[in-house]
Amino acid sequence: MRYLLSIVLVFTLTSCSSVKVNYDYDKAVDFSNYSTYNYYSDMQSGLNQLDERRLLRALDSTLKSRGYRLTEEPELFINIMSNEYRSAPRNNVGVGIGGGGRNVGGGISVGLPLGGSNLQRSIQFDLVDAQRDALVWKAVAESGLRDNASPSVREDKLRAIVKKVFSKFPPKVK
Rounded to two decimals, what is the model's pTM? Predict the structure, then answer.
């Protein structure tokens, strides 16, 4: 029963707030030349310390599985920035009234938002060529955020964000 409940909970959380990702990269860069990375020492991610550690663990695991190594003198520096914001309600209903008679008529209608605004999180990943100090790859992920989520749900959510963001890294050369 507990297993079924956890599956339903994970499905509900992931279905309600999918991760949307936008990418950009320098087409002139040969990403096969990169094999090492590190994070900027003065990185201000905007995440709390616990979430930042969860995110970095997920990112390290993902990059390591693709053959990248964390080193003191990297070829790529990674910078992470995040922002929380409230999005406007997506659903609304229109209500109108009107009347008329004897060649005169009138009416009024208004749109009423349904539900409250949603708390969203935007996380930006910048990969910078360490030698040239030039941005070579960038991704921005947007997803729903629940402050009251358990640590395991938060870790799963951050892991899903990293997985989706880095599913297209390195970019395929055409």
Answer: 0.72
